[in-house]
Design goal:
Elements: E1 2-11, H1 15-25, E2 31-35, E3 51-52, H2 64-74, H3 81-100, E4 127-128, H4 134-148, E5 152-155, E6 157-165, E7 168-176, E8 181-192, H5 213-220, E9 225-226, E10 231-240, E11 257-259, H6 267-270, H7 280-295, E12 302-305, H8 311-317, H9 319-327, E13 337-346, E14 349-350, E15 363-365, H10 382-404, H11 413-423, H12 435-449, H13 456-472, E16 480-481, E17 485-486, H14 510-534, E18 558-562, E19 574-578
Parallel strand pairs: 1-2, 1-8, 2-5, 8-15
Antiparallel strand pairs: 3-4, 6-7, 7-8, 9-14, 9-18, 10-13, 11-12, 12-13, 16-17, 18-19
Helix pairs in contact: 1-4, 1-10, 2-3, 3-10, 5-14, 8-9, 12-13, 12-14, 13-14
């Protein structure tokens, strides 16, 4: 195998990863950023509208202490208070630094940054950004800065596993899609910043790359996952027309109404006082109930009627959304979109401390793939703030480690075992499940049992189905599809019933990438189901209809550890344990 060497390896090129990478490169370290797609275009950050932060732009009375308390309240007080404090107190300096590096912010006539209103859960107006394309501008700024500082961009690389030894992390094993081979990436420190898990569900606002890779890799390395049961669902994501599918709609804030297949404004039945202006989780529950009760549309959604919003208001307040509809030939002044809840943001993830360390020396993590800041439910507009602050912190910690340590040694098994595990798909038997069907089965299991509304019976049914997939995939997934035949290793589509005989991945073998991703999805899905089964209450984004109330005795975090260590494919065995009841921390402390 070829070997590439750098001081610091960053896995993931969203805002968190690029922020960490540029911070390291600006201090003179050699940095490589690995991404399995087009760097700058395949992360959830791109679609972000704004961010919430306290700074010199804030109104009188607001402060980091108030922002901390709002965040803890939204997270139902199981957040990590020290991490929340770091985000709230460091946000101003990090954002001002980004502005100096080229990030534009909307300004008032007096030159101060404009505040775009008060989002739900915030006691003061904190929403800042640039028009409604803040995330895109963040990424553009960070990519340009990375290029200026000669960060090595490894596009079309899929991280497969960590390389570890007695001294800690030594790098990663990755699949170079363009070169068609597995490669060893050696580094003094590794930062995981792979984003969320939206692709575990049938409908998501996330990009195609959000398959939970980094969380799965960490779990497989023995690192605990924390708060994994908390998946945030965006209530109104387009399911039809198909040209706009997966687009989040924001017109409810402008007065748009939700109606079922009979044209009835059903929120009058659920929340007659607030109607559509309820919290996101409650709105998602109501829409979901209409759909599963048979009152949804033929396309699996409900109608979002924005005809009550004038074209000038819509186009000026949410221009990117309006323009996308116009380009798709959809007339919002006349027709209704069909929408449904979608997997949106992940509050759970890799367990980290206040330096973003994971417990393996030299291995750090940041961004949406980590737990702690958001607790049981993310406060609106906190995501961009979190990822850029924590990305900077992870970079600082990685710099310190890299300067104090050389390249660590690693066990040969940390290369050979994951290589065999990933390569098994290339020779999967005819009895193995097709990869596309397995991926669909994971999504259906998660939606039906570990989705918006959960019960013990539904969770156990999902766990059983996921366990069956673990067993069926022990020898790999069949590449390609039942319709088009098996994907050969060299890159052509063929019809060989027994799978590809070669161990050579072949260039741009997207089916092999899909198979490895599906392994990761299965790992994270099983861990989420394990945590959801343990938490017998409803808290934040975790709603159990058999335990519909929040229980003070469950104000605690659940950690999940992978126990399946037999053979290259492992098994779907996870152990969940609940920590002590947490004190109800408030703002005003010190990190």
């Amino acid at each position: 195998m070829n070997t590439l060497v750098s001081d610091i390896l960053v896995v993931g090129a969203g805002a968190a990863g690029l922020q960490a990478a540029t911070g390291c490169a600006r201090k003179g370290l050699q940095v490589a950023v690995l991404d399995k797609g087009v760097i700058g275009n395949d992360c959830a950050t791109v679609s972000a509208k704004g961010l919430g932060a306290v700074g010199r732009w804030s109104p009188p009375g607001d402060s980091p202490d108030v922002h901390i308390e709002d965040t803890l309240k939204s997270g139902c007080y199981i957040n990590a208070p020290a991490l929340v404090e770091i985000v709230a107190r460091r946000a101003e300096s990090v954002l001002l630094d980004l502005e100096e590096r080229g990030m534009p912010f909307d300004r008032n006539p007096d030159g101060r940054w404009s505040l775009h209103g008060t989002a739900a859960g915030h006691r003061f107006a904190r929403n800042i950004g640039f028009s409604d394309i803040t995330g895109k501008m963040f990424i553009d700024t960070l990519v340009a800065d990375a290029r200026r500082h000669r960060v090595q961009m490894l596009r079309d690389y899929l991280a497969v596993s960590l390389l570890t030894g007695p001294e800690g992390v030594a790098g990663a094993l990755a699949l170079d899609m363009t070169g068609g081979e597995f490669v060893v990436l050696r580094s003094k420190a590794v930062i995981i910043a792979t984003g969320g898990v939206g692709q575990l569900y049938p409908l998501t606002s996330n990009c195609l790359q959000n398959t939970g890779d980094g969380i799965a890799i960490a779990l497989r390395a023995g690192i605990p996952g924390r708060d994994l049961e908390f998946v945030q669902f965006y209530p109104a994501t387009v399911v039809y027309p198909l040209t706009l599918r997966s687009m989040n709609t924001n017109s409810i804030g402008l007065g748009a109404q939700l109606k079922n297949r009979d044209g009835h404004r059903f929120m009058q039945d659920y929340e007659p006082e607030k109607l559509e202006e309820v919290t996101r989780d409650r709105l998602a529950q109501c829409i979901y109930n209409e759909i599963i009760s048979g009152r949804g549309t033929d396309n699996g959604g409900v109608y979002l009627d924005a005809t009550v919003v004038s074209a000038p208001v819509y186009s000026s307040r949410i221009p990117s959304e309006w323009n996308l509809c116009v380009k798709a030939g959809f007339d919002l002044t006349r027709d209704s979109l069909e929408v449904a809840p979608s997997a949106h943001y992940y509050m759970g993830g890799i367990k980290v401390d206040t330096s973003m360390a994971t417990g393996i020396p030299g291995l750090f993590a940041c961004g949406e793939c980590t737990a702690g800041v958001n607790g049981a439910n993310r406060l609106a507009n906190n995501s961009l703030t979190e990822v850029v602050v924590m990305g900077k912190l992870a970079g600082e910690s990685a710099i310190k480690h890299a300067r104090e340590n050389g390249l660590a040694g690693f066990d040969q098994g940390s290369v050979e075992e994951p290589w065999r595990w990933a390569s098994r798909h290339l020779s999967a038997p005819a009895s193995a499940p097709w990869v596309r069907e397995a991926r669909a089965a994971i999504r259906n299991a998660m939606w039906e049992g570990v989705g918006i509304t959960r019960t013990a019976e539904g969770i156990e049914a999902s766990k059983k189905r996921l366990g069956e997939l673990w067993h069926a995939a022990s020898a790999g997934f069949r590449l390609g599809s039942r319709v088009y035949g098996t994907r050969e290793a060299g890159g052509a589509s063929g019809g060989s019933a027994g799978g590809a005989a070669s161990s050579n991945p072949g260039r741009m073998n997207k089916d092999l990438v899909m198979a490895i991703e599906t392994d990761f999805m299965l790992t994270v899905a099983s861990a989420i189901a394990e945590a959801a089964a343990v938490r017998t209450e409803s808290r934040g984004a975790h709603y159990r209809s058999d335990f519909p109330k929040q229980d003070p005795s469950w104000r605690r975090n659940i950690d999940v550890v992978w126990r399946g260590r037999s053979g290259p494919a492992g098994s779907g065995e996870f152990e969940a344990s609940a920590g002590p009841v947490l004190e109800r921390a408030t703002g005003g402390g010190h990190a």
